[in-house]
Structures are given as C-alpha cells and as structure tokens.
Amino acid sequence: MPNLTSAERFRGADLSRVADRARRTLGDDVMILHSRTVRDGGVPMVEVLAAPSYAIDAVRRHLEPKPLPTTLRKADGRPYCIALVGPTGAGKTTTAAKLAVRRGMFGAARPGLLTIDTYRVGGMEQLATYAELANVPFEVVYDAREVESAIKRLSQECDVIIIDTPGRSPASAELTERWRSLLDTIAPDEVHLVLPASLRADLAVDISRAYASSRAHCGTTHLLISKLDEVPSERGVTDLALSLEMPTRWITDGQDVPADLKPGVPRLLRTWGLSADAESDWMPA
Ligand SMILES: Nc1nc2c(ncn2[C@@H]2O[C@H](COP(=O)(O)OP(=O)(O)OP(=O)(O)O)[C@@H](O)[C@H]2O)c(=O)[nH]1
Ligand SMILES: [Mg+2]
Fold first, then answer.
1. Ligand 2: centre distance to CA 194 (Å)
2. 3-state DSSP call for residue 104?
3. Which of 52, 91, 109, 129 is most exposed by smallest CB count within 10 Å?
4. Confidence of residue 280 (pLDDT cuts 50, 70, 90)
C-alpha cells in the first residue's frame, strides 16, 4: 500500500535553501507539498513538507476510481445504479441528495433517487423532500418484488439512479440481512461505503470488512469519506482511505446540499497541502 511516510519536513532560513536540502535528501523528483513560515525560538523560518513524486503518483493511482462510463444508461435501457451504504448517521441520505440534485453532476445524464430505507422514521421523507424541491424522480422500494417496476418507472426519465439505504446497526442483524438482499436484487453498478472522516482507523477497517462482499451479498466498490469538515486535522483522512484499499470518487465536507460534495482524489491530496488546482477540472455548476 502506498503511503507518504517518505514525506519529510525541512526548515531553513529561505525557501531555495530548504528546497535544495529536500532535493538532496529525497532525490531530484521531489515535490514540495506545502510550505509555510514558522517561528523557531522566535526566529522566522521557512518550513516545507516534501515527498518524492513517485510516492504521490502511487497514492493517486491507488485512490483514483475508473471514470464513470460516458454513456450511463445501459444498452438494454437500464440506468446506471449507484448505492450508498454505511453506518447510521454517516451521511448517506444527505450525500444521495447532493448527488441527485447538483446540476450537471453526471453531465447530460439525468439522475433519479431510490430509497430502500423504509425502516427509519423520517428516512424517506428526508429524501423525498430534496427530490421534490429539485424536481428529481423518486421511488421507494419496500420489497424485492417491487424493484423491477420501480427501476422501470425511473428509467423512463433517468439515466442514473442514486440509491439510499438504511444505517447498519450491529444490533439488528435480521434487518440488515433484509435490506442487503434487497440491494442485491437491485444489483447496483457501484456501492459506495460512506464513512465519516472522524472514524477511528481500526473501526473503519472492521466496518469495511462487514460491508465487503460475502457469498450472500454484493460488496462495496468505492469509499466515500463524509464530514471532512468535522475533523480538526485532515492529514489522517487520506491514510484512512488508503488503508481501506478502495477507490474514492467523492468526499463530502459539509451539510450544504448540494455544495459540499467534492471529487475524492484531488480533495484528499489537498489534505497534505497539495495545491487545490486539481479540483478546478471538476465543476458541474
Ligand atoms: N458536518 C457535516 N455534516 C454532514 C455531512 N454529511 C451529512 N451530514 C450531517 O450528518 C447528519 C446525518 O446525515 P444523514 O444523511 O441523515 O445520515 P445517514 O447516513 O443517512 O443516517 P441514517 O439514515 O440514520 O443511517 C445530518 O445532520 C447531516 O446534515 C458532512 O459532510 N459534514
Ligand atoms: Mg439516511
């Protein structure tokens, strides 16, 4: 697994001397991730965080998802289905709303919403409200027998369907079994595991294992880190993403629907102080 343990901090009186030292230590292909002025015993100094560029490229390759198909609707007319799963309160419903109501999110492809969260009081109303406000088609599915007709109705107007699911409580194994087999019937093209950035790394690994594919159920394909705005330091978030070994298409960093949704890799690289320029190629209006 790639990591940035090869990143090092260098301090000195001026940037060119510090950069020289970084180059001598880490090699000619060194990249300066971040620079700032600090006070060392009252004396102002330049501090840089630097890493060999191969380490950054490796991280990027590891986290970068395959691009979405250029034509989301399948040859048989079925829309592309993207499901969000994850622990209670992780941000699944809010993220589903962000994905579906953001204009141009999927280019010209038209989004729809589907929920199988019929368990939590208010769960489906929350999404229904967003769907109504943004005029996005919305379906609720209670039972495997309803899946086909719900997708058929959505496919009349939508090329991509965002699917919301209930939180998974370890205490209710039977309920979890029910919604997971419902999700299997839908057979989404992508299943994003939504995890809050503040989650402890060991817990994240346990949760991720619980959602991984088993003989009985389809597994997660992507990681979606939510609530980046809630961690005091973002540094560990990319390590968390790397440790779970799944590509990251999107992250969220706030409660605002739909604004607080960003492309995953550029935003994660920024957690190391890398330039935000890479984010400029993202921009549904
Ligand atoms: N700060 C912050 N809050 C968020 C973010 N995403 C969601 N939230 C908030 O987190 C809370 C829970 O969000 P939901 O979308 O309802 O979470 P959920 O995973 O659907 O929850 P369950 O359906 O109960 O499992 C709400 O108050 C959201 O506004 C985020 O990126 N940052
Ligand atoms: Mg929800």
1. 11
2. coil
3. 129
4. very low
**Residues 90-142 pLDDT 10s:** 999 999 999 999 999 999 999 999 999 988 777 789 899 999 999 999 999 99
- Strand order of the β-sheet with 43-52 is 8-12, 43-52, 30-40
Q: Which residues does ligand 1 sit against, CB inside 6 Å?
A: 86, 88-94, 117, 120, 123, 166-167, 226-227, 229-230, 252-255, 260
Peptide bond into 258 cis (omega under 30): yes
Amino acid making up residue 14: D
Long-range CB contacts for residues 51-58, cutoff 8 Å, separation at least 24: 51/4, 51/6, 51/7, 51/8, 51/26, 51/272, 52/6, 52/26, 52/27, 53/29, 54/29, 55/2, 55/3, 55/4, 55/6, 55/7, 56/4, 56/31, 56/269, 56/274, 58/2
In total, the chain counts a number of residues equal to: 285
pTM value? Answer: 0.84
CB atoms within 10 A of CB 233: 7
8-51 residue pLDDT tens: 889 999 999 999 999 999 888 888 777 788 888 889 999 887 88
Mean pLDDT, residues 40-64 taken together:
84
Which two tokens mark 9?
Answer: 């901090």
Q: How many CA atoms are closer than 13 Å to the CA of 208, on its beta-carbon side?
A: 22
Q: Is the distance from CB of 168 to CB of 137 less than 8 angstroms?
A: no
The closest alpha carbon to 226, from 206, 204, 209, 205, belongs to 204
Helix (H) or strand (E) holding 246: none
Ligand 2 center–CA 196 separation, angstroms: 14
Q: Which ligand is nearest to the CA of 91?
A: 1
- Please, which residues bridge with residue 261 across strands? 252
User: In the block, which residue shows the tokens 């992250």?
Assistant: 251
